């Protein structure tokens, strides 16, 4: 039985018990939301871990960190350092997107050493193997794609991104549209070019029932990838994006009927004024399925600062109902991230997620801020530094330019408003 099948049968699993405790909700409430498909609890039955992460309605907004090697940098040790950086910064999940080196060894080491829920994009694995063994991605077969899904699920990956919505009909709508950046999803591009070359339907769509069979066997959660996500503000909310989302809505229904947990992936580059409408559209079409967004990035012109760019969009998306933020690092669009970039990306995404949790009225979210503000008013620096979102960074700044007095900071010193007011009361 999958978590979804157990939930629908009225059973509360040990995994639901543990996740409910982490979320601060009742196991019965979590079970009901999993049964309704508005929450997913990714936990592949082949991977035993206490790092459970419920995503969706009524849950704290979660943050994902992307890791993975490239052709230019393919050392497993480097990816494990990034994994540690992501975990220490408070990421709820990580995805291995490796395309360079021994990608099987890298994935399996990350699975063995990770303390968080894990995801992958199996089509990357199929494409890399096709290039290495058959010279080109175009020689990839439908069996290769399904085998990639099977291998990742057997290894214990908790959720997999599958671009099943990139259909021939969707590509026809793209051809009729004057996009600035075309398809920017790497997995979507692999599939689209394969489909055009072979003049065949997307095997992940055509053989979707087999994808569901594999996912159900291992209780892997499907993350239905948005292959047509906009990669430029000018491309947002166009016909191909909306067409694909309608396909994903149908596929989400089929997944639930098959007992497979499912969430929906979203854009991308989106103007600030469109974000709420995009989230509401996904929630309406997909019957409240958890929404996993990349950013969104609210401008195209901020390379080097795209972690901040994405956090602005992520906060608005979260406030509107998005459930899961994929971090963006400062090096997005520029280079492979370092561990420092990974840490920065996670922290900034967590700020966005927490701000949205407060705006949504998540129980307990604003209590953290109130308690912290009470420490500020009392000038209790030890508690402030231990209870803030990033104690390490805050402590470094505190020590960078020290104040002459331990009960103030070097910005205001004795003119600290709290200290002045305290003296006036004496």
Features:
single chain; about 425 residues; alpha/beta; TIM Barrel; 2 domains; two-stranded antiparallel sheet; 10 strands; about 50% helix
What features would you describe in this structure?
- By secondary structure, this protein is an alpha/beta fold.
- The protein has two domains: 47-359, TIM Barrel (Alpha-Beta Barrel); 365-425, no CATH class.
- Helix content is 51%, strand content 9%.
- The chain is built from 19 helices and ten strands.
- It has helices spanning 3-8, 14-23, 27-36, 76-88, 103-113, 122-134, 142-155, 168-175, 186-198, 203-206, 208-218, 239-257, 275-285, 306-320, 339-359, 365-377, 381-387, 391-400, 417-425, and strands spanning 39-40, 55-56, 62-67, 93-96, 117-120, 159-162, 221-224, 262-266, 291-294, 324-326.
- An eight-stranded parallel barrel has the order 3-4-5-6-7-8-9-10, surrounded by eight helices. The chain has a two-stranded antiparallel sheet with strand order 1-2.
- Helix 5 links the parallel strand 4 (93-96) and strand 5.
- It is globular.
- The termini are far apart.
- The model has no long low-confidence stretch (mean pLDDT 96).
Widest sheet: strand ordering = 3-4-5-6-7-8-9-10
CATH architecture of the largest domain: Alpha-Beta Barrel
Question: Count the strands?
Answer: 10
| Amino- and carboxy-terminal Cα gap | 67 Å
């Amino acid at each position: 039985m999958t978590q979804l099948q157990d939930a629908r049968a009225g059973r509360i699993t040990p995994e639901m018990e543990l996740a409910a405790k982490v979320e601060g909700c009742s196991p019965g409430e979590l079970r009901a939301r999993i049964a309704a498909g508005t929450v997913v609890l990714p936990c592949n039955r082949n991977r035993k871990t206490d790092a459970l992460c419920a995503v969706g309605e009524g849950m704290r907004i979660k943050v994902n960190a992307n890791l993975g090697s490239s052709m230019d940098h393919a050392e497993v040790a480097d990816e494990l350092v990034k994994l540690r950086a992501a975990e220490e910064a408070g990421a709820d999940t990580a995805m291995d997107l490796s395309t360079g080196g021994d990608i099987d060894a890298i994935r399996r080491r990350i699975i063995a050493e990770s303390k968080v829920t894990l995801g992958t994009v199996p089509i990357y694995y199929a494409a890399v193997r096709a290039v290495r063994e058959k010279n080109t991605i175009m020689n990839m077969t439908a069996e290769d794609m399904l085998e990639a899904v099977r291998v990742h699920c057997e290894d214990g990956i908790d959720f997999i991104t599958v671009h099943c919505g990139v259909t021939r009909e969707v590509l026809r709508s793209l051809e009729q549209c004057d996009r600035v950046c075309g398809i920017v999803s790497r997995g979507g591009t692999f599939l689209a070019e394969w489909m055009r070359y072979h003049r065949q339907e997307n095997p992940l769509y055509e053989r979707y029932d087999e994808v569901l069979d594999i996912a159900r066997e291992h209780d892997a959660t499907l993350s239905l990838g948005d292959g047509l996500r906009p990669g430029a503000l000018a491309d947002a909310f166009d016909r191909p994006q909306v067409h694909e989302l309608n396909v994903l809505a149908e596929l989400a229904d089929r997944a639930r009927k098959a007992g497979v947990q499912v969430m929906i992936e979203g854009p991308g580059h989106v103007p600030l004024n469109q974000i709420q409408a995009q989230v509401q559209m996904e929630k309406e079409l997909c019957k409240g399925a958890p929404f996993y967004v990349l950013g969104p990035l609210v401008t195209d012109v901020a390379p080097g600062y795209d972690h901040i760019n994405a956090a602005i969009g992520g906060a608005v998306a979260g406030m509107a109902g998005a459930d899961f933020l994929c971090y963006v690092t400062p090096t997005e669009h520029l280079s492979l991230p370092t561990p420092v970039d990974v840490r920065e990306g996670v922290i900034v995404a967590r700020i966005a997620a927490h701000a949205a949790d407060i705006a949504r009225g998540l129980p307990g979210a604003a209590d953290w801020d109130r308690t912290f503000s009470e420490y500020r008013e009392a000038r209790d620096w030890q508690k402030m530094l231990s209870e803030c979102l990033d104690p390490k960074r805050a402590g470094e700044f505190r020590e960078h330019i020290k104040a002459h007095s331990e009960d103030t900071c070097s910005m205001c010193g004795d003119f600290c408003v709290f200290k002045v007011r305290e003296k006036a009361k004496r």
